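Bit of a strange request maybe. I'm writing a small parser for structure token strings and I need a real example to test against, not something I typed by hand. Could someone generate the tokens for this chain?
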Amino acid sequence: MAQFVDYSSLRTCGQADSYGGKMDNAAADQRFYCAPRIFRPMPSHLYRNDGGGKFTDVSEETGISNSPGKGWGAVATDINNDGFMDIFQANDMAANFLFVNRGGKRFEEMGLPAGVGYSVDGVPRSGMGVDAADFSDRGWEDLFVANIDQEMFAFYLNNGDESFNDEAWKTGIASETRLYSGWGLKFFDYDNDGLIDLINANGHPDDFVDARSRGATYREPMILFHNDGNGKMRNVSAQSGEVFRKHISARGLAVGDLNNDGYPDVLVGVNGGAPLLLYNNAESKNNWLGLSLRGTTANPDAIGAVLKWGVGGKVHRRLKNAGGSFMSSHDPPEIIGLGKAEKVDWLKIHWPRPSQRVDRFTELPINRYLTVVEGKGIVK
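Reply from user aminoacidic:
Good idea to test on real output. This should exercise your parser:
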């Protein structure tokens, strides 16, 4: 992981190794956080759960420790649909890592050949918050990374062959995030229309950036993007509440339905301040179905399960990922947005390895949470 150390008593960063670039005369005598480029990369660690509350460090035998980096956010997802969970790691001022799981035995680091390591110009960026989702319902997991201002956030669309294209400009995200530094974030369907939206919490890491930069500020507003279903993400922050007009130094962000009304709420961690709690007022009045999955042969949280369901003759798909955002953990239940549909035609749960069992359901109730246990069906 990247190491941010208070060097104020040891040294002053020079203009080449502090955030924000060139310092003016007024700022020359001030002390700043040093940029990660001066820190040594370190290997990440992977711990295998042996049961009984015990874990074993398998970093070396799986190949994870072979790739020293400066990691921030990480998300576990399945980028090639082989049933084995892969790991995408955002690195700060270093190439991002994509650890592809080869048969549950080892990981192959493929950030560079997969096209997610660098920007389209071949430059490493300041990766912080991450997430994964099937943005356009094509059956493949896409990847998102928030970076620092001027770098643009990255929206990597999955080509289905273990490679990705950065479509941040095409989706409209790049132009909306150029002056922001992103941390906590989450793909989620905030209005339950069946399309995956995105929320981003922002704030510059340098608390002196206001005096040293034109455009970038230490405190920044959050951004809410709505998926319009045409390959575009539209910034709807101005229409989504007074809280999106606040400028804060945001860091972590977690999503969960705090009042069990079927609409996901958001908790944002603020650096040096009180957290923000955003209650979703469910203005769309769309229908929904909440699912709490419990694995028996599969892992207890059913991480890696694939949900498929039909609504109005259209088939949707969602993979249950793990991790993401930045220093945050989301509420485990999955919420399926139904729009104005009054029923779910059918639901299939493809339980993850080693189970690989498929449970199918029809005539499901809507606008409530259900607990589904692998092999036992819906339980109270």
